[in-house]
Queue: 3 jobs
Job 1
Amino acid sequence: MQITKNIHALKIPFKVKISPTITADRFVYVYIITGKKIWLIDSGVAGSKKNIFDYIESIKKNPKDIESIFLTHSHPDHIGAAKSIKEYCNCKIYIHPSEKNWVEDVNLQYSQRPVPGFNELVEGSVKVDNVVNDGDIIKLDGNLSLKVFHTPGHSNGSVSYLLEKDGALFCGDAILSSGQMPIFDDLARCIDSVKKLSDISNVDILLSAWDIPYEANHIQKIMSDSINFSKKIDETIRKFTEKENQSAPMEFCKQIISELNLPVQMANPLTSRSFQSVLKQNDKS
Ligand SMILES: [Zn+2]
């Protein structure tokens, strides 16, 4: 789907086995920026090379012209196909320094964040060529540049990229959409990051990895809904820990999911890990 003259959005569906009995249908958006060359925001899951290349050919461009992949973070559905795309195009891989080692050593990532289905979602480790830091401006070609915003919370090294010419903000998973599966490492930092993004004045289109594209008049509401949802999760977890904090992590997760009126399938190892991170923060404070 063409978004602006230079941006295309590609929705890639995939399945992930989140427990021995539950297979979830998920999707992720990869964004294709076209100019004198081609640049990708994220790479999708393992096997997404074909989806991406087919799309690029359908708009009469050559996949060999992919110059770089700008990763929003290192989770499997974002880095999954980076290996085969890099091998074919010899493109450069960019990511925030704090997640570089999880891209270059996916076994390390899996050992530290053992998410279900990891090995089916990721093709393998891939070398990072450049790191991006908050405030960096990366020139793509004559009139296209990406500005980098460090937006941690969903993960430690999550970044968002602003294509300045179009006011297009690629936020990866940094904005926890209200009612979506809550996956994060640090809920308080999630809220701070969304506030930071909402302070950018010239955003005309919001391009998330997990949601449809939103135009300017919807963006502030998406962000305020996200902040309210995050606060509600935090309050719910605090309420339950005050009442009883002895339940096993998965039982605790089921209680929180139920209290938030979210679908029961959202009680899974990913959300359980997220809720436990709030308990750990509470212990520290
Ligand atoms: Zn993620």
Job 2
Amino acid sequence: MKSRLVRTLLAGLACLCAFLAPVRGESVLVLDWNILTYNNPGSPEYEALVRIVQALNPKVILFQEANNASGRAAFMATFSTQYPYSFLGAPYSENPRNQILSAYPITLNGQIFTADPWGGSFERPTIWADLDVLPARPGPELRVYSAHYKSGTDSRDNTLRLNQATDDANHITAFLTANPEGRVYYAGDLNCEVGSAPITTLLQAQTTLTRQVMLDPNNGSPMTRWPSGRTIDHAFYSATLAGKLLNPFIFHTNTFPPGTVPPPALANDSHTASDHLALLVTIDIYSLPADLNQDGDVDDLDYESFASCMTAPGVTATGGCVKADLDYDTDVDQADFGLLQRCFSGRNIPADPACAQ
Ligand SMILES: [Ca+2]
Ligand SMILES: [Ca+2]
Ligand SMILES: [Ca+2]
């Protein structure tokens, strides 16, 4: 009886340890693409879209022009296991709109409506969603935006594009001011090129955004729109994601050497599916809990943040101190300090990802 009791207790402890072991990270493949329309289920355009998503298998999708209700419903049903979470932006009638599909829970989402110089709000807002990439760690780890700026060249179009960029830049700035460690990935069809006023507005210092250069790895081209060859689809990341975007590229089935297109995609699928090309990037969601400021090391700065939060066992941490609860048992106590000590690497020295094991 005794040995069975001991075995049960040990098994229980093992479970507890597994539960408390900090989650360290996830590589999040994000696809951004203006798909023109889902098209009707069964059409060549729709089937090419499905094959490309199957070939790339992203964790998060940012779509623009996600219209055609029947195609959209068929797509979401086909990928319901892969993307159990989704958010469809306005308008809800069949006009081009933005959509976010996610393998991770969406904890919060919203739409940014922009003033239309013709009166009212522009019908097609930028949309955003907070993603809980690491469910074992409190709070969401990534915020994504899907944007589609007004096309055209008349005065209203130019004003609207700049208004959209200004509103989105302000939205990102407000988010990062309230959440200095928030991670932002912003992408979409901005209908303007590098150097234009909307792009410059997004890149103003307070957004902390950097534009991610995207190239087709098979020919080095930055083109995202065909047949015009313009580069009007863009991706940006916040300073908190500096160094965390891996392998950015433009996906273009037509430029792969013969026989090398990732299956089940076919050679001409990019052009069959849409008049834009897809942007892909892997975002490294770094999650070593002891690295409180998430800059890669565990140093005196992390210790200072931690020390100001340390209390006693069983005292629930609140506000900015939740991040100092390194073993996720709600308090900031000696056990958390032990984890910090084990992970301490020193300034600018990458912490050992296995330190907390
Ligand atoms: Ca989380
Ligand atoms: Ca650090
Ligand atoms: Ca704790």
Job 3
Amino acid sequence: MTRTLLSRRYMLQSLGLGTLGAVGAFATGCPRTRGASLADGGSGSASASPTPLAPTIAIDDGDAPPPLVCSSPTADNIEGPFFKAGAPWRASIADGARGLMMGIGGAVLGSDCAPIAGATLDVWQADGAGDYDHTGWKLRGRLTSDKHGRWHVDSVVPGNYLNGSRYRPRHVHVKLAAAGYRPLTTQLYFPGDPYNKGDSWFEPSLVIAPEGPTRDTPGFWGRFDFVLESA
Ligand SMILES: [Fe+2]
């Protein structure tokens, strides 16, 4: 099944967060053929300081995510060292964190492409400068998919951070759990990040599909649909 795109505005409206635009609708059957990269000015050099706060998004065809195939479960990815259990229940996790505005969402699906309602998503990420909140709950939150399997998080675009001798690509950590399905721990990546290539854990199928405004717009909006394996 080819991934269908859910309007960001529709998601915001449906969740009572619709202050950013008019009501949209499901746009079915739209192929994901175009990617957008964040204009971060990254040089690809491990010694360069990442500059994640540039206020524009540039069109880029690189790292276009593949079409969704529900028979293929979402790939897992390392948990990393910065997970903290017990994050607050909320879909808006920025808490004034540094970084460009970001809205990401999509659906949680089974291997038959049926939506999974009530799935728990535990989300954590770095801020726009690449820092995690180790003492509080900034940029951490738990939420559940709605009756249509939809999820959405309002946040900021994560920055790159140094891991050993090189920067990691921007990513958002997610743990998913749903009754009757195998738990999943993974990371979502961003199209066009210069550090995607060569990263030890980057996985093309985990790239978020960009949506909405893609030129001269301060922020990033994208869609990712999770596919869980039956337990
Ligand atoms: Fe991380």
